[in-house]
Design a protein that fits this description.
Blueprint: E1 2-6, H1 12-24, E2 28-31, H2 43-59, E3 64-70, H3 74-81, E4 88-90, H4 94-102, E5 108-112, H5 118-130, H6 137-152
């Protein structure tokens, strides 16, 4: 599987550990940055680049997921979710990592690098990557509604405002 990684200065050291771990599992990893420590860098461009790459790969039929992280993971999740076609989920325990895939078919996971030990964060990311989408009708329906809203600003048959 191809994995796209984006972070900021808060996750730079962890990024190298994670990339080695994922490559050791046989994944093809693309690091979208940053490449060096800049204490005032801005995460949006790195996370958006990773998210865009996931959408591009998936539109080409490639098996691909994204991992974005920073101090809390919140801003990184928000940045990734600005990309049309991305469903980024913040995982803070094993259940949220699994449910993000099973119920939401999330294609990007966000992690708070300062909220977990490296081992904990890797465990959450591994769970996210290995957990398949359930393909249950109710989950497919809800994901379709989100995609419809994302592209049209409405959900047919449902009031949104």
């Amino acid at each position: 599987m191809r994995i796209h990684v984006g972070t900021d200065h808060a996750g730079l050291e962890f990024a190298q550990t994670l990339i080695s771990h994922l490559e050791g599992q046989g994944h093809e990893v693309t690091d979208h940055g940053p490449k060096s420590y800049e204490p005032l860098d801005d995460y949006p461009s790195f996370c958006i680049a990773a998210a865009r790459a996931v959408v591009r790969d998936q539109s080409e039929g490639l098996e691909s997921l994204g991992v974005v992280f920073g101090g809390s993971g919140n801003g990184e999740q928000i940045a990734a979710n600005k990309v049309e076609g991305v469903r980024a989920a913040l995982a803070w325990n094993t259940a949220t990592a699994q449910l993000a895939r099973q119920h939401n078919d999330a294609n990007v996971v966000a992690i708070g690098a300062r909220q977990h030990t490296e081992d904990e964060a890797i465990r959450l990311i591994d769970e996210f990557i290995k957990t398949p989408f359930s393909f249950e009708e109710r989950h497919e329906r809800r994901i379709a509604q989100l995609a419809e809203y994302e592209t049209t600003g409405a959900i047919k048959g449902h009031p949104v405002g």
